[in-house]
Specification:
The protein is an alpha+beta fold. The protein is built from six helices and four strands. It has two domains: 10-55 and 136-173, 2-Layer Sandwich (Alpha-Beta Plaits); 60-124, no CATH class.
Length: 180
């Protein structure tokens, strides 16, 4: 039963395009027709694809902020707790002196911020990706563009018409790609 549920959630059509302009036109037409669940495949990253798909900004920045705050708090806690646990009074200076601790705080802020940024990037890009998915075709990594439109079986004719009018060279159901 779980297999059918996964198969149902991955239904749709995949259009193959030779030109970026055709792909962008197809995305615009599909969005105007009300289709929002689109995924593009491209041999090279291009900012126009992201702008046309109207993807929200990446949440990785929140991971970075959390890492920086956690690193700063850890740095302060580590240095202050160490000084209080092993008090060395030198020259009448206070045991807890913040200025020398800022070096450790800065280093841990950068370390934790970087680590959580990496973790957030891997989490949000769903890496490592064990299976590629039914809509991917190896040609999309070489010289062609692809567009996966998640739709129900009853909408296949409408989506096919929209993709053809935008210049799709080939339209196939997701999961039925040809192996090259």
């Amino acid at each position: 039963m779980a297999k059918n549920k996964v198969a149902d959630s991955l239904t749709g059509l995949v259009g193959t395009f030779f030109h970026l302009d055709s792909l962008l036109q197809a995305i615009e037409q599909l969005r105007q027709a009300g289709y929002r669940d689109l995924q593009s495949f491209s041999p090279v990253p291009h900012h126009n694809i992201d702008a046309t798909l109207e993807k929200p900004p990446s949440p990785v920045r929140y991971f970075t902020l959390a890492g920086c705050l956690l690193g700063a708090a850890t740095g302060l806690t580590l240095t202050i707790a160490t000084s209080l646990h092993y008090p060395l009074i030198t020259g009448g200076k206070p045991i807890v002196s913040i200025p020398p601790f800022l070096v450790i705080v800065f280093e841990l802020t950068i370390l934790f911020g970087g680590l959580l940024t990496l973790g957030g990037m891997l989490f949000n890009s769903r890496l490592p990706k064990v299976n590629i998915g039914p809509a991917y075709n190896p040609r999309f990594s070489e010289d062609q563009f692809g567009l996966w439109v998640r739709c129900e079986q009853k909408d296949h004719e409408t989506v096919t018409t929209l993709l053809k009018s935008a210049g799709a060279e080939e339209i196939i159901p997701a999961g039925q790609g040809r192996e090259l």
